[in-house]
Amino acid sequence: MKSLIILFSFMSWWVSWPEGHPTSDQQKLMIDSVNKIRQKGCYCGKRFMKPVQKIEWNDKLYQSAHVQASEMYQHNFFAHFSKEGLNIGERLEKAGYIWMVAGENLGEGQKSFEEVLNDWLASYSHCTMLMHPKVEEMAVAKVDKYWVQHFGKQMPLKN
Asked: Which end of the chain is less enclosed by CB atoms within 10 A, N or C?
């Protein structure tokens, strides 16, 4: 019975996503799911992507992803540019993330992270972003039906 409750609790997280900042457990599950794929390698379309290093959660990436998801929800649009026309790099800089590498995956209508992750893996461009060898950090935000996943590698600090 105990294992059934634990399994149900785990499965209920995949089914529902509370609005707002994901908990540390939710962040860990998302990072672990992505890192499991990155460590094994995978096919993006017909191209095998070699295993790449693990990535970590970054709250500035979450902030920028959440702003984009909120804006898409509030203004009912779906795009890799903000309502003001800002691209991913400009939006990351606005959030205070000084980037060397930046990327974004979007999803619409998926009910769980597992579902949106599977959709991203089925899309060549989204899958290659998940497997990009130069990204070191990520975050995911969901507002209503909109999912935004931001990736990055920060610019090294100057001495």
From this structure: C
What is the reported pTM? 0.86
H helix or E strand, kind and range, residue 127? helix 124-130
Q: φ and ψ at 99, to 5 degrees? A: -105, 155
Contact 17, 142 (CB under 8 A): yes
Query: Given the structure tokens 């975050």, which residue do they identify?
Result: 139
Tokens representing 44 are: 């993006």
> For the chain, how big is the Rg over CA atoms in Å?
16
- Integer Cα distance of 153 and 136 in angstroms: 5
User: For residue range 102-147, what is the model confidence (pLDDT) as tens digits?
Assistant: 999 999 999 999 999 999 999 999 999 999 999 999 999 999 999 9
Kindly state the tokens that stand for 70. Answer: 């909120």
* Residue 12 backbone zone (phi > 0: left; psi -120 to 50: alpha; other: beta): alpha
φ and ψ at residue 138, rounded to 5 degrees: -155, 170
Residue 38 exposed, middle or buried by CB count within 10 Å (0-12, 13-18, 19+): buried
Alpha-carbon distance of 27 to 99, in angstroms, equals 21
